[in-house]
Design a protein that fits this description.
Elongation Factor Tu (Ef-tu), domain 3, 2 helices
Length: about 475
């Protein structure tokens, strides 16, 4: 059975989808769809949306003359008696909520907590929320103060869910399915048509316009290589070209390889390019001859190895490269003997770092000069090593010095060996550092210099993902 809404009038404009209401309450009456039938020559207006109590947007434009007319809204559903009743009740409740006339409680809590509020003024409301009996839908009970007299409560009153109402009429359809979909020309209005399948089933057929045809203005080359990345050609942002870069070798992973002994470097199969870093070996510290009683001498510290850096492509490196770790320079033999030079460190011929020079030996009552840091080499950047420090010489044993006299490895990879008065020089620690010089104390005897530290190679690979 159809249901109609006819309150007020409507104002229509020829060619417009807007329907203006006069004395209407469409949203309050919960109208959400249906057809507007106008008492005038023109078309039926299917409702697209209800925008306000006095404004509806129709699916179709009004084909009749502009004017104000009587009308009726025919709703879509068949259970409208119940819906109308519910709509009226809801409209009433909404109006009462706006006026603030629906009863509200002031405090909620267990019944035994009500006594705290015994002295409140008349009209104060307390909602007791104690659990109810098994099967009771809502156990909340409301108590209201009748006067300011302590404990003058009225109630309890049921609050919340009321008794179950009568079962409403079932709707006309138990199943709604999607029906046919028709593509309309761009710019045509969309529509939905209800189609009866059987007594319980209805299908919704859709007619939907396609979007406007777009035209792009970005152009590319006439051909390309599979797997290559595209790049902009020029500065317009509208022309593409083949970048020549295979997507499989775009760096997405970094791998660090550390070599402390000579070996063969085989690059990662997905390596695109690599950063090669080489440190040369550190030079040995100089020895010290026996000095006279009451005096101290010291051999020079060995110089640290130099460092070379090279960015190399996969083509530069090829299938493999030999890695040579520069040997540590040996400490000068006991006596006024120079320390040995550190060896060169290399990755093939791509990157080479030279070792530091050995410190000079110290004669009796003398001091040896420090060895020079490693210089020269091969790479995009070549950094010389730190020179060793000259050995101590004191005419009196009343001054005793302990210091680090070998050159430190660049970037903190090693620390120079120390010179300790009256002792052999200590070896450089870590990598690429120079050894400390030997020292005699008051005729104690010849002393040897300390060994340098070996070289180092670090290779940082930038790898793509294999296709």
């Amino acid at each position: 059975m159809a249901s109609y809404y006819c309150e007020g009038t409507v104002t229509l404009v020829a060619g417009s989808k807007a329907v203006a209401g006069n004395g209407t309450a469409w949203q309050t009456a919960l109208i959400s769809g249906g057809n507007i039938i106008v008492e005038a020559a023109g078309n039926v207006l299917p409702i697209a949306s209800v925008d306000a109590d006095n404004l509806i947007t129709a699916e179709l434009a009004w084909s009749g003359a502009s004017g104000t007319y009587s009308y009726a809204i025919q709703r879509d559903t068949a259970y409208l008696k119940t819906l109308d009743t519910n709509s009226q009740n809801l409209a009433y409740l909404l109006a009462e909520l706006r006026r603030g006339t629906i009863f509200k409680y002031d405090v909620a809590g267990p019944l035994d907590g009500r006594s705290v509020y015994d002295g409140r003024q008349a009209g104060f409301a307390y909602l007791a929320t104690d659990p109810g009996a098994v099967g009771e839908e809502d156990s909340s009970k409301l108590y209201v103060k009748l006067s300011a007299t302590a404990g003058d409560w009225a109630g309890p009153f049921a609050y919340g869910t009321g008794p179950q109402g009568a079962k409403g009429e079932p709707g006309p359809y138990t199943e709604i399915i999607a029906g046919n979909v028709q593509t309309l020309a761009a710019g045509q209005p969309a529509s939905v048509t209800r189609r009866q399948i059987d007594a319980d089933t209805v299908a919704l057929d859709f007619a939907i316009p396609k979007g406007a045809d777009a035209t792009g203005d970005v152009t590319g080359p006439s051909g390309a290589t599979t797997g290559r990345l595209a790049a902009f050609d020029g500065q317009t942002g509208k022309v593409l070209k083949d970048s020549g870069v295979d997507a499989a070798f775009v760096p997405q992973r970094v791998r660090v390889r550390v070599f402390t002994a000579s070996a063969t470097y085989v690059p990662d199969p997905n390596m695109s390019f690599a950063l090669l870093e080489c440190w040369g070996g550190g030079g040995g510290g100089g020895g010290a001859a026996q000095t006279a009683s009451g005096t101290i001498n010291g051999g020079g510290g060995g110089g640290s190895g130099g460092k070379s850096i090279r960015f190399a492509s996969r083509a530069d490196i090829g299938a493999s490269q030999p890695v040579i770790i520069g040997a540590a320079g040996s400490g000068g033999a006991a006596g006024a003997n120079q320390g040995g030079a550190g060896g060169s460190t290399s990755v093939g011929s791509l990157c080479v770092a030279n070792g530091g020079a050995g410190g000079l030996g110290a004669a009796a009552q003398g001091s040896g000069a420090g060895g020079a840091g490693g210089t020269g080499g091969t790479g995009d950047l070549i950094v010389p090593g730190c020179a060793g420090i000259i050995g101590n010489r004191f005419a009196s044993t009343t001054s005793i010095t302990y210091g680090r006299f070998g050159g430190d490895g660049l970037q903190g990879v090693g620390f120079g060996g120390a010179l300790v008065a009256g002792n052999a020089g200590t070896a450089g620690s870590g990598y690429s550092a120079g050894g400390g010089g030997g020292s005699d104390y008051s005729g104690g005897g010849n002393k040897a210099g300390g060994n340098g530290a070996p070289g180092l190679v670090i290779i940082t690979e930038y790898c793509g993902v294999s296709s």
